[in-house]
Write a structure and sequence with these properties.
alpha/beta, 9 helices, 40% helix, globular
Length: 275
């Protein structure tokens, strides 16, 4: 019996390890082992180092218009070799401006990945879905790997699929708010009904919220403010890494059922010892 139990345990661990090591995140033809993406809008050397070393980030965004924010400082100097750059079109107010910024990033040597951000509203910073679809279609035609930031709407997601997007990036809550999954139900619809990877972006404020999004079936999580404003950046980066991995493992394992009402005993209610 002990040998049989040992064999069973070995098989279970073998399958777990196999799943863990082959769970690769593919985006634009590239493979990534990390499902955490750093948004670097509040960048600092400490933030980027922590995201790479402690959160395992393999993709880092950068705003093209801010790559040189000071005379002797360049964000590109902070991003290690081997990390994929994801330039964004932050500051664009329409598709035309977003396309121009994307082309500029390519000319600067930032590669073909681009995160499309188009926001006309400066108060709530909500994405303009219609302009985002237009920019996505044009950039995809030009060979870009387009990751559009969008308000979670199923019809827009379907339009982005047809436009050639490589993924969709719905906001969880307003940028920089740390309010978490305010749009949870709408994101779940996108996950269930969209064939593209769904990367939850903007508003994730806690590791537990990142874990929940991954449990829902999100392909990856992008975070910035939650780590950048933490009391201890390296520790928070590590916490996000563990949360994303835990949520992904739970999703792959298959979450247990939820009872609508009543209770279900975890132990048998029969076979009790009697006097």
């Amino acid at each position: 019996m002990p040998e049989n139990l040992s064999d069973q345990k070995g098989k279970i661990m073998s399958e777990f390890n196999k799943t863990d090591t082959t769970d690769i995140f593919t985006l634009g033809g590239r493979e990534f082992s990390s499902r955490f993406i750093l948004g670097s809008g509040k960048y600092s050397m400490e933030l980027i180092r922590a995201a790479v070393e402690h959160a395992g980030a393999e993709i880092i965004t950068l705003a093209v218009r801010r790559t040189n924010t000071r005379q002797n400082e360049n964000i590109l100097d902070y991003i290690p070799a081997g990390v994929t750059l994801l330039p964004n079109t932050s500051g664009a107010r329409d598709a035309k401006e977003a396309v121009r910024i994307a082309r500029m990033s390519r000319e600067l040597g930032c590669g073909d990945f681009v995160k499309v951000e188009i926001m006309k509203d400066s108060k709530y910073l909500l994405p303009d879905n219609a302009e985002t679809v237009r920019a996505t279609a044009q950039l995809a035609d030009e060979g870009f790997v387009v990751l559009p930031y969008m308000y979670p709407d199923l019809y827009t997601a379907r339009d982005l699929v047809r436009a050639g997007a490589a993924a969709v990036m719905p906001l969880a809550s307003p940028i920089g708010s740390n309010k978490g999954l305010a749009t949870r139900e709408f994101i779940q619809i996108l996950i269930d009904e969209t064939d593209l990877p769904v990367i939850v972006d903007a508003g994730i404020g806690r590791p537990s919220q990142a874990c929940e999004a991954m449990e829902m079936g999100a392909a990856a999580i992008m975070a910035n403010t939650a780590i950048a404003t933490a009391g201890n950046i390296p520790v928070m980066a590590s916490a996000f890494k563990k949360a994303v991995e835990a949520g992904r493992s739970a999703y792959l394992a298959g979450l247990g059922r939820v009872l609508e009402r009543g209770a279900s005993a975890s132990d048998p209610l029969t076979g009790f010892l009697r006097d």
